[in-house]
Amino acid sequence: DGMASFSVLFLIGAGYNLKNNAHVRVDVIYQRFNRKLKAWIDLTGSLIFLILGCYLVIKSSIPFVEASW
């Protein structure tokens, strides 16, 4: 299935980018912040997208769970 393959590749790429701190940010603004604020922004952004991703996975899987119940 193409969507499953895409999902696996996306998750591998996302994990690699988070590990190597290679995710996209607006460096024009970001470079002016101190180290502590950068760390806080990185943590907050990661948590927001993690929670949003979990929500979308759960929401999209509910019909499949209901159908198999």
Compile the SSE list and pairings.
Elements: H1 2-19, H2 27-30, H3 35-68
Tell me about this structure.
The protein has helices at residues 2-19, 27-30, 35-68. The protein has one domain (2-68). Helix content is 81%, strand content 0%. The chain contains three helices and no strands. It is elongated. With 69 residues, the protein is mainly alpha-helical. The model has no long low-confidence stretch (mean pLDDT 87). The two termini are 23 Å apart.
Q: Determine the structural class based on helices, strands and strand pairing.
A: mainly alpha
What's the pLDDT, averaged over the residues? Answer: 87
Poorly predicted residue ranges: none
Helix content: over 70%
**Relative strand content:** under 5%
Secondary-structure element string: HHH
Q: Strand count, sense and closure of the main sheet?
A: none
The rounded Rg comes to 16 Å
What is the total domain count?
A: 1
Anisotropy-based shape:
elongated
Termini, distance in Å?
23 Å
